[in-house]
Amino acid sequence: xxxxxxxxxxxxxxxQSSEIYGGLGSVWDYxxxxxxxxxxxxxxxxxxxxxxxDDIEGIESAILMHPRVWEASQHVSQFTDPLVDCRQCKNRxxxxxxxxxxxxxxxxxxxxxCGNKGTLxxxxxxxxxxxxxxxxxxxxxxxxxxxxxxxxxTYVNFLNVMQAARQKMPFGIAQIGKAFRNEITPGNFIxxxxxxxQMEMQFFVKPGDDEEWFExxxxxxMQWHKDLGINPDKLRxxxxxxxxxxxxxxxxxxxxYEFPFGWQEYEGIHNRTDFDLSRHQEYSGxxxxxxxxxSSERYVPYxxxxxxxxxxxxxxxxxxxxxxxxxxxxxxxxxxxxxxIAPIKAGVFPLVKKDGMPELARTIHADLxxxxxxxxxxxxxxxxxxxxQDEAGTPFGVTIDGETVAExxxxxxxxxxxxxxxxxxxQLATYLTERIAG
Length: 438
Ligand code: ATP
Description:
Layout lengths: L1 H9 L3 E3 L11 E3 L1 H20 L4 E3 L8 H6 L2 H4 L1 E6 L6 E3 L29 E4 L3 E3 L9 E3 L5 H5 L2 H7 L6 E10 L14 E11 L4 H18 L7 E5 L11 E9 L2 E12 L1 H10 L5 E2 L6 E2 L2 E8 H12 E6 L2 E6 L10 E5 L6 H12 L5 E3 L5 H11 L3 E5 L1 H6 L1 E6 L5 E5 L3 H9 L2
Parallel strand pairs: 3-9, 19-20, 19-21
Antiparallel strand pairs: 1-2, 4-5, 4-6, 7-8, 9-10, 10-16, 11-12, 12-13, 13-16, 14-15, 17-18, 21-22, 22-23
Bound molecules: adenosine-5'-triphosphate.
């Protein structure tokens, strides 16, 4: 993890928020390469979950919602973690923190930071939603929440979308957006943060068809991660036992990745039943039902949700791509990112800064950058320039040398195999475009 965090900062993938002020706890910023990688990941998800499907529509609902939404969804009453304080060192923990020995609130409970016994308070419930006020009056009536999940913005728009898009059951609604949780023990870099982004899709089905659709999405989402090039040996399912299931869920399976700190969830597939829509129907007084074409009955749909964290996916992709290898007696750090998600697709390098090479390299660079992100670099030895791009995950290096000037061909170096191909200049864009697709 230390190596990943340091590479992420050095190469401009991820920076700590407000770093010059000492940082803000568990909030992170995406740098120039990070924002490109993140966009590539969200676009890939959007393409496969929305654009390529006839039965899923996209939306973007607001972060701020009517406060009754969170009462209906039970986030006000249930979205809590048990919290304990150490009276001695003032640190806070989740009561289920594995580092706590003994029972908090009793003499046996031992603080994992200061080591004192009997200083931990009884667990008390702490709501994870961020509160703020809408309008100029800071009183209870004006209190609203920053959404802790995008799903509720989808549920309240369910009928709007169905009617506007003329969808028929079963169909889904997808959205990508920010969510906020005041996590008590955040950490592990961007794994658990207080502000994060989710890619969630709610699939509405007829009650009784939910289990079949659950199976479908369960398979489908795992395949998506494999297609992204994630090492399948590091992927597995984890089924939620009865004590792990969220208050709304009938069945839940996580897709886990073996992070450097162990197996952890990064996507969840949930059978949320008709819980959310029924509750919104009850709290809003508006019918959230559809007609069954087979009979004259109306029903509240069941929901199968797929919920993926963008930051967690980003971390999976980085951790999975990172490798160190020895080349000619030196350690080479490589991010073996799938070319389709790499932030920069090709480096353009004039071998030397004379003999017409920089001019030709500039022409090639200008042409390529209208098609995909490329990086021009004429600083330092060619070996060092290659290494810098290896670390950034750039799949191709285009070198302009004497032969380019004489014969209008360039060398294309492949990041993973180190193989070098001689390509005609006028074929270069096509050659690279074909290899970047995916
Ligand atoms: P966890 O048990 O790790 O807190 P969760 O089960 O509460 O996660 P869900 O509510 O199912 O998570 O959210 C769906 C996805 O959103 C998660 O799989 C994860 O990728 C992402 N996510 C949830 N909380 C966070 C967070 N604090 N920071 C980053 N990503 C998060």
